[in-house]
Amino acid sequence: xxxxxxxxxxxxxxxxxxxxxxxxxxxxxxxxxxxxxxxxxxxxxxxxxxxxxxxxxxxxxxxxxxxxxxxxxxxxxxxxxxxxxxxxxxxxxxxxxxxxxxxxxxxxxxxxxxxxxxxxxxxxxxxxxxxxxxxxxxxxxxxxxxxxxxxxxxxxxxxxxxxxxxxxxxxxxxxxxxxxxxxxxxxxxxxxxxxxxxxxxxxxxxxxxxxxxxxxxxxxxxxxxxxxxxxxxxxxxxxxxxxxxxxxxxxxxxxxxxxx
Length: 260
Prior knowledge:
Blueprint: E1 3-7, H1 8-11, H2 17-26, E2 31-34, H3 42-52, E3 55-60, H4 80-97, E4 101-103, H5 115-135, E5 139-142, H6 158-168, E6 174-178, H7 179-185, H8 189-196, E7 200-205, H9 221-230, E8 236-239
């Protein structure tokens, strides 16, 4: 049976992390993911999740100053020391929170830097992060993101992922496969999933256009969920969408696919 986790940042973005956790539980979710847990002491987040009976699936490594426009540090020249510190912070939080996979967001192109230089920085940073996270029992993921929603983002395609993974040359580097981003950038969703299934550790869903819940756009999620079940996908499915309506109607699609 497919397992669905609420993405607190997307679904409950107006609430604090702790209040969003409570809301997700009230809405029937047993697991959650979020952009960042770092605004709260890790012990507070851990204890609140335990009190609610929620599984914390994953979070993003620190992304720099999000309010100032940062969208990740992994590919940004000149900020390598900041990146390394972010990995240590990630390990500290993940171990306390019982989280076993994290998403290391690539970041934006830097004006004046060539793509080859940016990729070299990303590869070096991932070579640093992959073994350290592996030693801590944590899977390292990276995620192609569409450049329409995030202009200037560097990592956008599965072809880039494959090349970067080959260059990093460490087994602890996985793909976070977001069907919404992939529909915008590449399409052919299941064929591309199949090409990389062995290194996909997490998938996320939202429909296009609008990034709302499955069933509101052009992506055939009935087909996709049947395909994931047929292939024996046993990871979590992150519901990273902005509800198009309030209340239970935005979650009615889950009734058609079952949940655990």
